[in-house]
Amino acid sequence: MKSPASIKKAAEWALPYWTRGQAGRETPHDLFRVLYFGWLVAFTLKLLGSAWDVSWHFKWLRDDLAPPHLLNSAGTAIALALTIVHGYTGYGVDRLALRLIQWGTGIFLVAVPLDLINHRINGLDITSWSPSHIMLYVGTFFMIAGVVRGWFMGAPPGRERTFVLAAFLAFFLENVHFPEQHQEYGILSLGAWDNHVTYAEPILLQFAADQMGRPVDRVMMLGFTLPVPDFLYPVYAVVAGVSVLVVARLLIGRFGAATLVAGAYVGFRTLIWPLLTVTGFPPSAVPFFLVVAGLLVDVAFLVRLPVARAVVGAVGVTAVTYGALMAQSTLMGAVYGAVKGQEGLAGAPPLVMASAVWAGVGLMVVWGAAEWVASRRSPRPQVVETPAVVTA
């Protein structure tokens, strides 16, 4: 706990910066770091809360004031405070970054009461894919996207810029992949039921059974644990998850960037798994295949860029397009293979191989759009290295 003297000192440092300004104003480097390290704290709290939340809902009957919700709310409170600071002072963000943060925070705050109303009307609503839950992910999506842009545009080059950018992108990957955890927890809970073990408390199972109008049997457990079509998991993992890794490679611009982001997220999931299970919470399948996807994205960029430069001059753009299609199709197929291998070794949701066609098309479209946007991005402004003189 901070002493009154340290609080006073922090206030004396911060208050001169509390002046009205437009987004994009020059930001002193020390203030810039404080703002974005504040975002790291906010997203860390939200990450811990969300990681606990899914496991909690596979064990206990829902409670608005459950500890995971309170932990997530603490992170949201910090995010809201930072959004207000950015919006009022204009420090640390350009106009687009600010709009993304404001819209994301606004959507998230609107989604919270809508989700509460949804639960009051529909009861349990266990699926992560419900409309009100999707609004929460969409709000967080825009919020983190704005923070990523703000840090990318304003942070000075160096190791700190790279690793903090990777951290924000790992948070981004966690948010995008979050709804998939329903199937990752669900497949192991269903397998436990088949082995005459239940992770959920009887009151939760009975509540779910009453909603479905069934006894507590395997059909009810299947609807409880895997309520969405089986093709959704692999298609979403390839189109959404791998696309985040492509964006990470484009923004960081170094070999290993996609692997680093995927490894950070999967490493967290691997670490949190025993911490949850040792306290009696249900286990989940961990998406190890994302690390394979990250490595393949890095390799695809490593191989494709020099080949593209050589082929454009010799053969033409069409050959490069076919080469890109082949590389991305190979990557998508390898991800499907990794999911299939994990299904037999460490557990994974059911895999519908026929969905690979849709996954490949979706990945191609999003990958191409990401590269097109990256080719048109504006140059980064400079952060003031020394504190600016602030006047009232």
From TrEMBL:
<feature type="transmembrane region" description="Helical">
    <location>
        <begin position="285"/>
        <end position="303"/>
    </location>
</feature>
<keyword id="KW-1133">Transmembrane helix</keyword>
<feature type="transmembrane region" description="Helical">
    <location>
        <begin position="255"/>
        <end position="273"/>
    </location>
</feature>
<feature type="transmembrane region" description="Helical">
    <location>
        <begin position="31"/>
        <end position="49"/>
    </location>
</feature>
<protein>
    <recommendedName>
        <fullName>DUF2029 domain-containing protein</fullName>
    </recommendedName>
</protein>
<feature type="transmembrane region" description="Helical">
    <location>
        <begin position="96"/>
        <end position="114"/>
    </location>
</feature>
<feature type="transmembrane region" description="Helical">
    <location>
        <begin position="69"/>
        <end position="89"/>
    </location>
</feature>
<feature type="transmembrane region" description="Helical">
    <location>
        <begin position="351"/>
        <end position="370"/>
    </location>
</feature>
<keyword id="KW-0812">Transmembrane</keyword>
<feature type="transmembrane region" description="Helical">
    <location>
        <begin position="134"/>
        <end position="155"/>
    </location>
</feature>
<feature type="transmembrane region" description="Helical">
    <location>
        <begin position="231"/>
        <end position="248"/>
    </location>
</feature>
<feature type="transmembrane region" description="Helical">
    <location>
        <begin position="310"/>
        <end position="339"/>
    </location>
</feature>
<feature type="transmembrane region" description="Helical">
    <location>
        <begin position="162"/>
        <end position="178"/>
    </location>
</feature>
<keyword id="KW-0472">Membrane</keyword>
